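Shift notes (night). Ran Prepilin peptidase while the centrifuge was going.
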Amino acid sequence: MVGSFINVLVARLPYEKSIVWPSSRCFSCYRKVRLTDNIPILGYLRLRGKCRYCQAPFSARYLWVEVGTGLAFLALFVAEVGCDWHGLPGVKYDPRGFDGASPTFRAFAVFCYHAVLVAGLIAAAAIDAEHRIIPAQITYTVMAVGVIGGVLMPWPWPHPALAANVIPPATPWIIEDYLGKIPRGVQPWPFWGPTFGFAPPGSWKLGLLTSVAGALAGSLAVRAVKWLFETGLGREALGLGDADLLMMAGAFLGWQIVVLSLFVGSFASLILKLLEAIVRPTAPSDSAAGTPVTGPPDANELPFGPGLAIGVVATWFAWPWVGPRVQFPFFDATMMGVLCAVMGIGLLAAALFLRRPVETAPAPVAR
Ligand SMILES: [Zn+2]
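Came back to this:
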């Protein structure tokens, strides 16, 4: 049902239509979709993806987003509640009850919070893939949920606040003895360690700061990359919707994960681009009759959103292994600054290297 709602967002938000009115209807003959035909997945399969009245085909995206969202939620539930992937106490399901006596509410809260992020990522990726935009209505709404959740479930929740004391207070978190010792909470890491006195572990202030720092870092990292790359390249190369996507993820996962997922996401985008070249060697021409024809601005330019969303999820779920290995630079301000400067200069140099002489493109054909 969430996937079905995401489909409504993908079909309507780019045209600035209302998402609640009117009810679902065929884009070709404008007749209402029957309630029973609107059942997720089954409705699409029963009509074989065609309108009941005029036989106009609906985009296959309706089916894939519904199936994909369902599978993603199932995988999230199995990983977090079934297998205790992130090591959160009192969240793992046990056939005899949740962890003996602790309440099931905790598992429910963790799963729902993260499911909101996953749904937001799927919606942003699906709209970006189809329309090359990521609507702010999605990213800012989901980010707000991320910040509220951060305030209600501050690091190291669901660990008790005392769990933060495995690293003695006021000790730098980069000492070798404490690498890999940070307890991972729903907010995997706090925004800085050692935490400051005005925002102790487990306080809503720390949760708020961690979410806000994550959102800011996600947005600024993409904007910095965009500025450096485009300055070197001499033309536009990235959309600001990508900055909003990482901003949204940062409100849930903190600045460390989103900064790293920018690199993982670039790599994932590259793989997607290669896969697309293999699957669809020619330019796509799948403007299905069921959706209005609005071709993407440039069919050769792959949207960054889907790769970025994959990068976020991959980094987040690899964190139990990646986190301990990146603890040193991430909590050392000097080292972090040096790394950022080196990567910024590298990016600028790479973009300058890629800069092409002024293109003598043929005059655009008027349509
Ligand atoms: Zn129709």
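The pocket of zinc ion is lined by residues 26, 28-29, 31, 51, 53-54, 56 (CB under 6 Å). Residues 135-282+301-354 form one domain.
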